[in-house]
TrEMBL record:
Transmembrane segments: none annotated. Residues 140-210 form the Beta-ketoacyl-[acyl-carrier-protein] synthase III N-terminal domain. Residues 263-351 form the Beta-ketoacyl-[acyl-carrier-protein] synthase III C-terminal domain. The lineage of its organism: Bacteria, Bacillati, Cyanobacteriota, Cyanophyceae, Nostocales. The keyword Acyltransferase applies. The keyword Transcription does not apply. This is 3-oxoacyl-ACP synthase.
Amino acid sequence: MIYPPVGIRSIAINFPSVIRTNDYWRKNYPDLVAMAEEKSLSKVFSPADSTPSNQFEQVMTPYLKDPFRGTIERRVLGSDESSLTLEYQAAKNAIAAANLSPEEIDLMIVASLWPENILPGNAAFLAGQLGLRGAAWNLDSTCSNAMVALQNATALVRTGEYRNVLVVVSCTYSRFTDENDTLSWFFGDGAGAFVVAPLKPSQGILGSKIVNTSATCGTFYNELTMDAEGKPRMLIRAAKNTNRVLSETAVDYLRECCLGAVAAAGVTLEQIQFFAFNTPTAWYSHLCTQALGIEPERTINLYPYYANIGPMLPIANLYHGAQLGKIHENDLVLVYTVGSVSNAAATVMRWGDVALSTAPATSANLTDVLPKLVLV
């Protein structure tokens, strides 16, 4: 079936004001750093047995000597920031980059990990702030939020139901982790937005493959606790078998989705110019290039500078890939994401004339650190 050309028209990213380096924990939590190998982050990312037993564990091994598991910086919310403040600026910038007005946005899909309220999500609140009059929906697929929202937006524009769909994604993990838990070293915050609209002939989304990740159910979960002031607080926890489940399923999900997406698009992996993997760990990009048999130079690894920003990772990868000149108009691009207890997704697109908003001051200065972002 031949579909009308629809895809990403503009991209914006936005990060909170606080940049937290490893020295923050070395200075404020020296005992925690000294005992890191006995704590949660180490338990999640260590071999399930005494020696590495699969590709995930093999590429992880060089990072085991680092208590921070390859993280260098992470962006976290300041006292006056929230998922809504991050989303608002990203959404506003994406609309402006697309040279559109709020009145021209027919639909906004919002995927917040997590929203400011348990229910409802951020969509209606954000629509009011932006002055939108069209529909505003909430969506959830954890770390695959961006790709699932992209598939939905593309389908709706193709049918003619909507013309300009704004997708807004945020991740605010710092609200759900404690500084004195080493799992907090692994997480960062951020927001991104992109406009999905008709493009030039042959450009846009060519094929996708999405599968559920039910095998990861029970790995990461949320626990309702009480803080020091006796107020309820939700925290992210990891089950005892999380390391085994993640390492044993990673390559299978990757191959099934990526090979399925290129087949649906009628292309091959060799024809893809740029791969945007969601890099939830420092070694994940290496795992992907090794498992798919592609050259490391065809992707980038943002993890050391943003940490795990969940559903924001594919948006940041695409933004910086284009910003650094690694993606050009009409290039074939493959995006892959995997979310625990949700979906793994891959999408192949032919890159259009995508407008990029100005990068925020708290975004990594990747021009200076690019050599470190290519795994060899």
